[in-house]
Structure formats: C-alpha cells, structure tokens
Amino acid sequence: MHSENLDKIQGQVEEMFQEIRNTNKAIPISPGQPCTADHLQILVKSVPIMQINMLRIFWPVTPSILHYEEAPCKYLSHLIGHEGEGSLFHALKTLGWATQLFACEVDWTSEYSFFKVRINLTDAGHGLTRINRFQIVFSRIIRNNESPYLFILDEIAERMQEVLGFLFTYIQLLQQSGVFQWIFDELSSICETKFHYQDKIQPFSYVVDVASNMQIYPTKDWLVGSALPCKFNQDTVQKVLDELCPTNVRIFWESKKFEGQTDKVEPWYNTAYYLEKITKSTIQEWMQSVPNVKLHLPASNVFIPMNFSLIDDKDKNGLPVLLRKSLFSRLWYKPETTFSIPKAYVKIDFNCPLAVNSPDTAALTDTFVRLLMDYLNECAYNAMKAGLHYGLRLSDNGFELTLAGFNHKLRILLEIIIQKIANFEVKPDRFSVIKEKITKAYENYKFRQPDHQAKYYCSLVLQDQASPWTEAFDAVSHLEVEDLAKFVPMMLSRTFFECYIAGVVKLRKWSHILKMFFITTQPPFADRFLLPSQLTNRVVKLQEGKKYIYRQEGSNPSNENSALVHYIQVHQDEFSINIKLQLFHLIAKQATFHQLRTVEKLGYITSLSQRNDSGVYGVQFIIQSSVKGPGHIDSRVESLLKNLEITPQSNVTALIDIKLEKHKNLNEESMFYWREIQNGTLKFNRRDAEVAALRELKKVELIGFFDEYIKVDAPKKKSLSACVYGSQHLKEMESDKVKVVTPCIEIQDIVGFKKSQPLYGSLKGGVS
Q1: In contact, 105 and 115? CB cutoff 8 Å
Q2: 767 with 330: CB under 8 angstroms?
C-alpha cells in the first residue's frame, strides 16, 4: 500500500526482496483429520479463571473451503445458531437455561475443519434437576431384555444433559427435515446484498484480505472469496449435517463449580480438568429427557431489504442541521451526500438524570437496558442477519440507542424498539436471569487486565458522576422485581431526547416517530422537562503545576502484571490548542513505543493515546508490565518527556493528510458528528478549521506549548498517574508512597477528592 502508482510500487518491492530465493518448497500440509477415536465421544470438565458456565461442542467435519460456493457450514450455522421463535436458543432461553448461543465453522484447513457450538449457561442451565426416567429405562429394558426390577422412576441428573439433549434433538430435526432450497436462497440473498453494498474499509485491510484470498481461491474469486454462496447442493449440506452425530462429538464444559472435582492439569496454562468418555446411547438418553418444547425451522426473514433506491437530496451542504428543538428534545439530520449506498444511521440519547444519580439507580438502569435487549432479541436477531444492526448501551447520563444498516426496514425496527420501551414491563423469570448475568459480570471485573483497571481508575477520578463499580455490584444483590417496576416509569418521565438521523432517509415516511418525539408538545413517557443543568457532563479540573497519584492493588491476586496510566490534562476544546496537542501526540507516539517498549522493554502493552472527556482534552501513556512496578514506569515516562525532541515539520504535513482523509463510510462519518453533539461542541467543520490552523502553525508555537503544558515541571502541567500494582510488585506500593514529594498529591479517597475539586464548565446543557 503506497501513494505511488502500482508499477512503481512493484519495482520497489522487487528491488527490496530480490535477494530472497525461490526454493520451490511445498506448503506444509497435515493430511487427514487430527482426531482419532480417543479424541471423540469425550466430555471434558474444566475450571475457568472467570465466573462462567459454558458448553463448547465440537465435531470434526468436511471443510467448507472445499465447497465454498455451496457453503454447507454457513447453512448449518444459520439454523443451529438462529435465535428466533422455534430455534434451539429460543427454547433454552425460554426455560432460563442459556444466555447466549453461537454456531460456526472454526480452525479449518483444506484437510480438516471443526463445527463449533458455544452455549453460555445460566446457573439453572448448569445445575441439577429431577427428571422422570421411566420411559428411558423402560425402553432400555425392552431393548436389552433386562429385569423390570431395574425401573428407576426418579433420578437426579445434571441439567447440562438436557441442554445437550436439546442440541442433538434439534440437529436430528434438521437431519430428518432435509435441506431446503428456500433457506439457502434466503441466505444467499442476504450474503449478496451485504457484499454488493458493503461499507468501504481501510485500504490496508482490503489489500490484506485480497492477498489472503489469492492463496486460497481461484482467480475468479479473489475479490469475493467465500462471501457469495451461489450453488444449492442438498447432498453437500446433508453430508456435513450427518457428521454432527453423537459418535463424532467433543464436549467441553467450563465452570467454577468443578473446583475440587478434577484429576488432571494441562501443561500450558495449568487448567484443571476431568475427562470422561460418553456413549451414543448416553446421548440418546439425554435427548429423551428434554422437556416438551416445540422446535421448528425459522420462518422467512421479514427484515430482508428489497428497496435499494437512493435519494437525490438537493441539500449538498453535507453538515448536520438542527431540524427540531424543544424543552424535551432535539432532532439533528444529516442528508446522504457522499456514499451513494442505501443505508441509514440513527442515534438516540435518552438523557435521564435519575438513571445515574446513585449506585442503586445505576444498577437499576443497567438491569433495565439488559432486560430490554433480552425482550428484543428474537426480532432484532432477524434484523441483524439481514444487515440491520441495533445496540443499546449505558451512557454517562442514561442510555443510548443506535441503529445502522440498510434503510428499507430500519424504521420498522425503530418503531418496535420504541414500543418496547414505552410498554416496558418486568417479567420475573427474565429478571432473575438478567440479574444473575449482571452479578457474574461484576464478579468478573476483578479479572480485568491491569491496564484496563488503571484506565478505569483514571476515569473514576476525572468524571464527576462516575461511582465505583463495587457500589453498583452491592446494589444489584438487593434488587427485586418491584424495585425495577417502580423505577423505570419514574426514570423515563424525566428524559431529554437527543436524536441524530443520517443517510438515505425519507423523513415524510418517518412522520409517526418524528411527531411522537419532536413535533408534539410532550413526547411519550416524559412528563417533565429537564433543566439545562441536568443535561451536563462535568469533568474534574486538575490544578496547574500539580501531579496527582492514585494507587490501588490489582484486583486479581494471581496476575503478576502491574499497570500505569500517566494522564496529562491540557485544555477544554479550542482549535489552536487542539492541533498542538494532536501534533505532540503524533511526534511522541513513535518515540514512546521505541523507548519504553523496544529499548527499555517495560511491557508488551505500551501506548500513547489522545483522551477526550466531554470536550476536555489530554493525552495518556498506558503501560502494562511484569518486569517493573508502576512507580518505576512513571519515572521512565517523565524521563522520556525530559529528553523528547520536538520536530514538527514533517509531522505537520502528516497530520494535515490525516485530517483531509475522507470518512470511509456512513458509520464513521456519523460517529464523528455524534461526538460533536454528545460533547456539546457542535463544531461540525472541525477538521477543516484545524487544518487551517495547522497551516498557520509555527515551530516556536509548538515548542512553547510543550514547555508550558507537557514537559516535566511545565508551569501549566496537570497530570494524574493511576497505578495498579500486580502481585509481583505489591511490596513496592508503600515504598513508592514514601517517595512522593511536593507538588505531588496522593489521592486516598476518590469520592472525597472529587467533592473537593473544581469542575470544568460543561459545553452541553442548553437546548437552544
């Protein structure tokens, strides 16, 4: 990849690599399947590090690469991994036994491949159950002519057996039903639409993908690869389907509950496990034990787009415009002027102050969002398969909805989601499952990598409304159905809606939704408007000339790694300072990696990145290390800054080129504009303005900026070091504290510290 023409690039490559001789060696190939009979019909129980209950089921199968136009594994993944009504996952979810199911081909070569099904179990899906064994034992007695005195009417069994029984029952359903051309045609149509209207990606990634395809596929398919299944072959699919049989299976079951029940340890990661053989008749018994839940093939997908027409928008301005505003909402619209692709992007921020005003409400909001996604799953799954994606996530002031993909059916999905929010009710059985899922997620927080922990502590210090995850974890344990049922209407009643719509969107067809939120005096569920002060995100303003340090023991005692985030807070959004900070980042990024990673070998994870907290800009050095503690690493960062040479000339040109590079696709463009809206900066012409400022920048100005804000002992420097001490460096924590001298400030209590500090004024808050 290069800015020169292809002939020149080819000449350069040939010149640089001409010394490499062609020895005509064949590519190493491992013929045949790697699994012998000893490796099949096994159940392995292992103890994971994190709090998970997971089943992973593998079958060695015929590689799809040999039949990539017929796509047998794509067909089977589509059905076994389906999440709609009648599917395997829908049955397990309805029973409260599973939270996730995924099916696909993995670890393939031209000689062998594996088909994998992964099921994340709930505690109920993992636990024990009483099953009626009369029919199972009776059939065995008749078959084997055994004594009737062996009847067992009731027996305790692991529910995992029923989960696997469901899986094999569904596979048997597929085997007996046969292979349907309409399902293949629907899958082929979806793949063709996604391929022909795929978003533009980075040139580097595209070149790598095509180069990889050139080693695998014939010339005609170098650009396509296996993306377009086009030949329906019932026998090919049926052959792979028949390979998903009990005699061919490998089952891996991971759970903390197996601690003390294992007898082996694998040599690489010291994972404790227990292995047992299983028979075909055992699996048949599992199949006979499953509850009477009707499984069936999926219906046709109503979200498959049919209309790919574009809009000839007369407004070629190309910047978002504010269409509507009120005390309850704002609506931004960006017409499609660039990409000529039938897609749209919608973002709605539900700004709900009640959602985050305490650990209790934060836990309630988290539960609400996860339950909402749980309720939407069957519908949203079909939309996702058809190229229409949605996401719900917690935000600093509530929650955020994103929709992106083909525009034809996007409005339908949005209306379904809004109706689910408006008519939200708490289903006790699903509440229990989601509460368990959140609890495990919090329990696994302590297993996060140290660099993630350090970044978390940095954010906790800086963000005014952020509270420790431990408080939310404690709150979750006390949540009841009634708490959430009372909270959600109250939270939604005090909501400000900020919406951004972009792409190929005919607004007149969206009149119902637009009228609901932005044209009526009062939108649904909101009955009181918010004050401007309630729409703000505030950031702690560190004092000039001060260095703040927060130290914490790593939360996972078995992790020897330590980590440091060395953050330098610079300014609130301003073009002239923005470009100097960005230029410093560009200059120092390579020097940071070279000195701290390559020369000093402090840690594999070593980076310098820009940071933006609600329009407050800075940079952060992130290093994770097993060889040195945070105190030593912090001193090496400051040593780097002492010796750094500022050379802006070539870097100015490089930064201008980066800023002039056009957005690759609608999602990338929309995220750029949405950040402006979310931060309250609204500088939609930011890149052009910053390029103009860069062209006027003088070297002396950049050096002056560095001397004033960045270098060690700079008069306006404000830094925060978040230090996480791994088990190997824990003894250094106390000695590092002793070394602290003025003007260093040791933060002992984050909550108390934030209450004592000034805050930056918010760039967001007004509705006009």
Answers
A1: yes
A2: yes
Exposure pattern of 464-478 as b/e (b: 16+ CB <10 Å)? bebbebeebbebbee
CA dist 181 → 31, 86, 184, 185, 303 (Å): 33, 19, 5, 6, 19
- The set of long-range contacts for 361-365, using a CB threshold of 8 Å and a minimum separation of 24, is 361/487, 361/491, 362/394, 362/467, 362/472, 362/475, 363/438, 363/472, 363/475, 363/476, 363/479, 364/475, 364/479, 364/483, 364/484, 364/487, 364/488, 364/491, 365/394, 365/398, 365/399, 365/491
AA letter at 427: K
The answer to whether 622 touches 596, Cβ cutoff 8 Å, is no
Residue 645 has pLDDT above 90, yes or no: no
Q: Which domains does the chain have, with CATH numbers?
A: 37-184+232-288 (3.30.830.10), 321-535 (3.30.830.10), 546-648+698-755 (3.30.830.10)
Q: Which residue's entry shows tokens 């001298």?
A: 741
Question: In this predicted structure, what is the pLDDT of residue 204?
Answer: 85
| CA distances to 43, 100, 110, 275, 445 from 442, in Å | 29, 18, 42, 30, 5
Q: What DSSP line would sit under 75-104, residue for residue?
A: HHHHHHT--STTSHHHHHHHTT-EEEEEEE
How many other CB atoms are found less than 10 A from the CB of residue 328? 20
Express each pLDDT in 570-617 by its tens digit. Answer: 999 999 999 999 999 999 999 999 999 999 999 999 999 999 999 999
Closest C-alpha to 127, from 1, 31, 11, 253: 253
Q: What are 380-417's pLDDT values in tens digits?
A: 999 999 999 999 999 988 999 999 999 999 999 999 99
Whole-angstrom distance, CA of residue 743 vs CA of residue 546: 5
Q: Are 547 and 745 in contact (CB under 8 A)?
A: yes
Q: How far is CA 636 from the centre of its chain?
A: 33
- In what helix (H) or strand (E) does residue 605 lie, and over which residues does it extend? strand 605-613
Structure confidence at residue 765 (pLDDT)? 56
Strand extents, DSSP E, 75-203: 98-106, 113-121, 128-132, 154-158
The mean predicted confidence, pLDDT, of the chain is 90
Q: Phi and psi at residue 397, in whole multiples of 5°?
A: -125, 20
Give 280-330 as a 3 state SS string.
HHHHHHHHHCCCCCCCCCCCCCCCCCCCCCCCCCCCCCCCCEEEEECCCEE
Which of 369, 344, 627, 618 is closest to 502 using CA atoms? 344
Choose among 570, 604, 601, 608: nearest CA to 586.
608
| Cα–Cα nearest to 524, from 532, 516, 512 | 516
